[in-house]
């Protein structure tokens, strides 16, 4: 990112009409690699970036091994990662009540201070009842647990109506809201729970690494308009691709 800013700054001169009319400036691999070597990034910063990703995404074993090998200390107790992943797994498996109980064991204030998250968990519980074909139980739950919340919040009411609409269709594939029964809905709720727990632990809810990769992609797109250079097409290997001349 720092290198790209330098290159963008150095290439400002080609924005003139005369230079824009000419071919793009070409930066050779040797010249590009020399610029890369000039950018000084501390290993400690890179290690913290990796640790941030492992902790946020819940790779507790990998985080512990990385802590030992690199000497990088995580910002939170690694034991809490296991607890957080158990909650996330419970939601992803459709065991919403178990997830709620585990959240309260972790920190009872999470749901007390986040009514939207609690509603979405209750909504997910209703979805699971409908998925299991427990129609009477689903209707009773919707009326006793969710309806009062819908009376207080218009957005919640709309979500309740969409969820209850699943009961009207024998073939949920033809229901406009059938996506609520997709696994993606569980994952969405689990992700919201994961973010809430991380926030309660004073930790970022999103890892920094994906954001940096998006920034790198954006910067390369900006450079493409002005210069031909060895760019990275495969982020998995980070291999430089020679510019086409």
UniProtKB/TrEMBL annotation:
PROSITE patterns: CTLH (PS50897), LISH (PS50896). It holds the Pfam family CTLH. It comes from the Eukaryota. GO terms for cellular component: cytoplasm; nucleus. Residues 80-137 form the CTLH domain. GO terms for biological process: proteasome-mediated ubiquitin-dependent protein catabolic process. PANTHER family: RAN BINDING PROTEIN 9-RELATED. This is CTLH domain-containing protein. It comes from Setaria italica. The gene is LOC101762572.
């Amino acid at each position: 990112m720092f290198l790209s800013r330098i290159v963008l700054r150095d290439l400002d001169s080609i924005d003139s009409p005369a230079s824009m009319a000419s071919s793009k400036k070409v930066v050779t691999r040797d010249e590009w690699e020399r610029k890369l070597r000039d950018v000084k990034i501390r290993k400690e910063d890179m290690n913290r970036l990796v640790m941030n990703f492992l902790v946020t995404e819940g790779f507790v074993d990998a985080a512990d091994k990385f802590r030992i090998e690199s000497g990088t200390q995580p910002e939170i107790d690694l034991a809490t990662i296991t607890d957080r992943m158990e909650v996330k797994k419970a939601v992803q498996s459709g065991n919403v009540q178990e997830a709620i109980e585990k959240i309260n064991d972790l920190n009872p204030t999470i749901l007390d201070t986040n009514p939207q998250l609690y509603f979405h968990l209750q909504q997910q519980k209703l979805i699971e009842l409908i998925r299991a074909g427990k129609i009477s139980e689903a209707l009773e739950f919707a009326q006793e647990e969710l309806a009062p919340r819908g009376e207080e919040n218009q957005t919640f009411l709309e979500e309740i109506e969409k969820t209850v609409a699943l009961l009207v269709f024998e073939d949920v594939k033809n229901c406009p809201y059938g996506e609520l029964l997709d696994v993606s809905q569980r994952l969405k709720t689990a992700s919201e729970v994961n973010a809430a727990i991380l926030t309660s632990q004073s930790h970022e809810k999103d890892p920094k690494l994906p954001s940096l990769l998006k920034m790198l992609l954006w910067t390369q797109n900006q450079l493409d308009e002005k210069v031909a250079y060895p760019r990275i097409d495969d982020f998995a290997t980070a291999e430089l691709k020679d510019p086409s001349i």
